[in-house]
Design brief:
mainly alpha
C-alpha cells in the first residue's frame, strides 16, 4: 500500500523537533552509550566498581552535552528541505 508523504516546509521542519523529543532521544542514546562505556571500562580496568563510577559520571555529562548539541543542530537549516 502506498503511503502519501506530505511535503514539509522549512518553517515546519525548523520547529518540528520539540525539546521533549530531544530529551527522550538523549536519554535513550545515553543508556546505550553508558552501557558501552561501562563495558569498555570494565574490560580495561578489570574492576566493576571503577567501570560503574566512570559510567555514572559520563552518563550525566554526556546527556547535558548531547541535549545542547541536539538543540543547536535543530536551529541549523543545513540538510533540511
Amino acid at each position: 500500500m502506498d503511503q502519501v508523504k506530505s511535503k514539509s516546509t522549512y518553517k515546519k521542519d525548523s520547529t518540528s523537533e520539540k525539546p521533549l523529543r530531544s530529551i527522550l532521544k538523549t536519554v535513550s542514546w545515553r543508556i546505550v552509550g553508558t552501557m558501552d562505556t561501562i563495558a569498555i571500562s570494565w574490560f580495561l580496568t578489570g574492576e566493576v566498581e571503577t567501570a560503574l563510577a566512570i559510567g555514572s559520571i559520563e552518563l550525566v555529562t554526556k546527556m547535558i552535552l548531547y541535549f545542547g548539541h541536539e538543540r543547536l543542530w535543530n536551529t541549523i537549516s543545513f540538510g533540511k528541505q
